[in-house]
Amino acid sequence: MSIAAGSIAGSNGGRMLMLWLLLLLAVAVRELARALAAAWNGLELRGILLLPTGGLMTYATLEATDRAAQPDMQRRMAVVGPIASILFGLLLAAIVLASAPGINLIARPWIAPSHLLRAAVWLNLLLGVINILPALPLDGGRVFRGGSADGAPNGKDRRQTTGSGGKLGAGLGFGFGGGLGQWIAIALVIAGVVLANGWLIIMGAFVLIGAHMENQGLLVQNDVDTVRMRDVMLTQFSTLSASDTLEDALQRAVHTLQDVFPVVRGGTLVGAVSRQNILEALATSGNSYVQGVMTRTFQTALPDDSLVKTLRRIMGEEGAQLVPVMDGERILGIVTPQNLSQSMGLLNQSRRVKRVEES
Q1: What Å distances lie between residue 22 and 115, 118, 261, CA to CA?
Q2: Longest CA pairwise span in the chain (Å)
Q3: Where in the chain is the domain with CATH 3.10.580.10?
Q4: SS3 (DSSP) at 55
């Protein structure tokens, strides 16, 4: 009895895994078609963030990102995904009907682990239909956003029709498609609950996640390769002397939001120390000098160095808390984990607003 029950549970678990793999296949086919379309249109890809509703493409250069944001290009790329999903679903349906005519493809449930061939067809069709909805980041939302932006007679009106929030709303990504996308996502979740359809709930949840990611801009994925150290460095910062006591250093740290401090000796950069290092040293060893707890090994950068390449260069380096940006022997600025996250977010919003103003 228990062996039979275990076999049934194992069989259901295996079929559920196969169902998820079929969804992955459907998404992969769609994104492969979109990647080929991007290559055809000369858009160099950096990567694709996969979601059950599809993928969010990121581009290798700022120029490619700007080209992909053009209304004509958005419409051109947006139709590829739904067409690929629907055509692949119809192809699978034709193969199933030809090889196994006894299978009823329109019988309910359409998507269930007990009917994998039928589910393979309907997963692709559902993915194609879902992406037609006018909700960002779905393809339909990009078509509507592109159409609204392109249909205006001049630049001023084009900015106003991009989103209900006007110029600022468009710059921050809360346009027609973005706001409507969240409501459509909620509607999908509610419909899934009412109809007891888990797939609608999953799709709605990921549309909501994708809409939020679209609104936030995801600078790290889209534009980070174009960011230079000078774009995100902190230019107003405090330094500590290697001969300062820890108590003196802590008093200075109290009056600033800076989390890591360059340590200098006679104007020469010799190390770095964090507020946390100072507190821990005071708690364990009492008052001493900054030079006794500072990090002596660190990587420096030039103002025009790529942020990505700099981070890759120091990744995994023990004790890397600060990257001084140097001009010869002079410290122009610093980049710390705390200020980097804040600067990246502000830089993202600034670039978005600038693109809207220039369009």
Answers
A1: 12, 11, 52
A2: 86
A3: 229-348
A4: strand
Who's near 353: CB < 8 A, 6+ residues apart? 167, 168, 171, 172
pLDDT of residue 213: 57
Query: Which amino acid is present at 2?
Result: S
pLDDT in tens, 187-211: 777 877 776 666 667 767 766 666 6
State how far the Cα of 209 lies from the Cα of 114, in Å rounded to an integer.
Answer: 29
Please indicate, yes or no, whether the overall pTM of this predicted structure exceeds 0.90: no
Choices 3.30.9.10, 1.10.357.10, 3.10.580.10, 1.10.10.10: CATH for 229-348:
3.10.580.10
Question: What is the C-alpha separation between 282 and 297, in angstroms, rounded?
Answer: 22
- Helix (H) / strand (E) element for 325: namely strand 323-327
Residue 214, pLDDT above cutoff 60: no
Grade residue 175 by pLDDT with cuts at 50, 70 and 90: very low
Of 335, 354, 337, the C-alpha closest to 232 is 335
**Helix/strand/coil for 119:** helix
Span 6-55, pLDDT tens digits: 444 456 667 778 877 888 888 888 889 988 988 898 887 767 766 666 66
